[in-house]
Specification:
globular; 308 residues
């Protein structure tokens, strides 16, 4: 705390009799009820973390015997459960994430830029869109799967279980997240940067494209990656679209595809213990992919984050 801050605080306390703890509320909150609530809160947090760690450790121990190269190179097999693999699921998840990013990121960024920089924020339509964006982020993922099924049903039944179908459902799922995080990142850019650009004669679009967006890239990238890391673990919308177990590698957007969560779901319900061990190993792979994407988001945020 600087000398000027301490002096200002002492002056306020001497003239008004109000202490810093009164202003923050900390002094008033330290009664029996607040302490009990704080203890219950910390216990709930501690219990949740312990259960999560126990589940992860148990899964790693069960799946450790199958964390080998065959898990990545073999297809699933009903004949040799001891050497069954997840090659189709791993490649399918990568294809689905690639297609989901192509669909969701440009559309989500364009919507966020329009709502934050060009739309009339005082209009009733803008307020309605704001409220619905917040609500859409909490809609269960299976609803997006049903919506994607309805959209694809307009074309032809052969479009069932293909890459573009699963990507459409996952893109709808993470679109509200991308729009909200992009808007927050754009909103965090100081108005002085926009005003300086406009004062030099730039248009609103030029200011947005050359000044606002580059400054908001860390927040946009972080929110986008976190959205994709949520999508890669979803199975419900893919089940609604008829994504099933296949033994082929997808080579295009209209090829049949399976995903790692689908294979885990199917193998974990098998009575054969070998399949359950393999599904535990696949869960470890999926966790590693999600943690890797979250780590990438943290690196991007720390590397490119600016302090205004």
């Amino acid at each position: 705390m600087s000398i000027a801050t301490r002096t200002a605080r002492d002056t306020v306390e001497a003239t008004t009799g109000i202490t810093a703890s009164d202003l923050t509320g900390r002094g008033r909150d330290r009664n029996v009820k607040s302490v009990l609530f704080l203890v219950a809160l910390w216990f709930s947090l501690f219990f949740g973390v312990v259960v999560l760690i126990a589940l992860i450790v148990d899964t790693v121990i069960k799946g450790a015997p199958r964390l080998d190269a065959e898990l990545f190179t073999n297809y699933h097999s009903k004949i040799s459960p001891d050497t069954t693999g997840f090659r189709a699921g791993i490649l399918g998840s990568i294809w689905l994430m690639f297609a989901t990013a192509l669909l969701a990121i440009p559309l989500g960024m364009a919507a966020a830029i329009y709502l934050e920089e060009f739309a009339n924020k005082r209009s009733r339509l803008h307020r309605v869109i704001d409220v619905n964006l917040q609500n859409l982020a909490a809609v269960p993922s299976v609803i997006y799967g049903m919506l994607a099924v309805a959209v694809l049903a307009l074309f032809d039944p052969p479009f069932k279980g293909i890459v573009i179908g699963g990507a459409l459902a996952l893109a709808l799922l993470i679109l509200p997240v991308i729009i909200i995080t992009t808007r927050e990142a754009i909103r965090a850019v100081p108005q002085e940067i926009r005003q300086g650009s406009l004062a030099l004669g730039a248009t609103v679009w030029q200011t947005t494209w050359r000044n606002t967006l580059p400054s908001a890239v860390p927040g946009i990238a972080t929110g986008t990656i976190l959205g994709l890391s949520r999508a890669i673990g979803e199975a419900a919308p893919l089940l609604m679209l008829g994504v099933a177990m296949v033994r082929t590698d997808p080579t295009g957007l209209f090829d049949k595809v399976t995903a790692l969560p689908i294979q885990i779901y199917n193998f974990s319900s098998e009575p054969n213990e070998a399949y359950q061990i393999a599904s535990s190993a696949a869960i470890v792979i999926l966790l590693a992919m999600i943690l890797g994407m979250n780590a990438l988001a943290i690196v991007i945020r720390n590397k490119f984050q600016k302090s205004w």
